[in-house]
Amino acid sequence: MKKILFVEDETALQKAFGTILKDKGYEVISAFDGETGLKLAKEEKPNLILLDLILPKAHGFEVLKKLKEEKETQQIPVIILTNLEDMENVGKALELGAMSYLIKAKYSLEEVLEKIKKALGEI
Amino acid sequence: MGIVMIGVISAVYGIGLHYLNDPQAIALIVLFLTAALFIITFVITQSFEKTAEANRLKSEFVSIVTHQLRSPLTSLSWAIEALISGELGKVDEKQLEYLKILKENNDRMGELVQDLITVTKVEDGSQFKNKELVSLETLAKNLVFKFQPFLQASNIELKMKIDDNLPQVLTVANQIKIVLENLIDNAIHYAKSKDGRKGLIEILLHKKEKNIQFEIKDNGLGIPKEDQKFIFQKFFRSQNVRETQPYGSGLGLFITKSIITKLGGKIGFKSEEGKGTTFWFILSIK
After folding, report:
1. Which domain, by its residues, includes B49?
2. pTM
3. Residue of A15, A30, A88, A104 to mutate for B, most B C-beta atoms under 10 A
4. pLDDT of B140-171, one tens digit each?
5. Which of A119, B185, B207, B237 has its CA 20 to 30 A from that of A112?
6. What is d(CA A118, CA B63) in angstroms, rounded to the nearest whole number?
7. How many CB atoms lie within 10 A of CB B285?
8. Residues B92 and B153 in one domain
């Protein structure tokens, strides 16, 4: 079973999307802030990280930067899942090593699930 | 402001010299006037600063509110989508009907939030810094392609007439895309007239001296004469439009005009109720 770390501070989204991912057959690990996200990434070695940007304790970019610096986590693909839509943020995320940048409000569930499957090499 | 003050004081001094013989009286008048002008300048500067600060706070507030609204809306949208797909359990016809109503309303709320975000960004001017050469022809054609399913579903024919070798425009591509999207979307919504005529939309792109003019003409509802002066106002929706399209934020044309104005262009329209509307905008090539 593939493991997904979902770093998102919005409880409702954690519950709704986390449940959907579990129903799709993934193991979901939840982190509600940046620091915990980073810690769980090192401990659990997930196959994929879904990372929000505006997070308590550590901003998504800080988490992404550290993930890509650490040898043990730098190979894990990271998808940014946020509602910040400025081009500057998109550029910065890709520069720091994110695999893709998805604006939550502009993607349907189906589209996001497809991106996740692609990132996990399932399609 | 300083130049104005020096000018006014010099003028008063000159007039005083001409009409008054007492140098002390002239000096007193000039002194009094200088003090008055300083006070006026101070009050005006303060009020400008206060207005600027209020605008900045308003933009910041709207930005935070809209971003905070987006997350729960996304949760709702994805959860409803999961239910509709039937993958979480069988959904009967009645339940599906209600879920679709929920989804439709959630999407509407999402669109309104998106419009508010666009308004905030247009008003704070942060999105107008990076200009590049943009082909309006390519942008318009790509958008028309995107809207094809809606055109077909609404039985609307769309014709395009574009000048050969149309030059590119030095502008902000993603902002012009919003403008074109709004104008095409409006034309599609309102081209459907009450009497069941087939909808027709014509898009014209041509060079006019040192400018490019874009025009979009529909044979739809038209705008009632009494509503025409309000058409670019924030949240305004024409009465005849409310009857056929009950939902809409009323922000589309406000956003469109604000963007064209910020890009240094001009926008306008002509319309006749029951016959149709033509919206146009002009942008300088360089």
Report:
1. 1-124
2. 0.67
3. A104
4. 999 999 999 888 888 899 999 999 989 999 99
5. B185
6. 32
7. 16
8. no
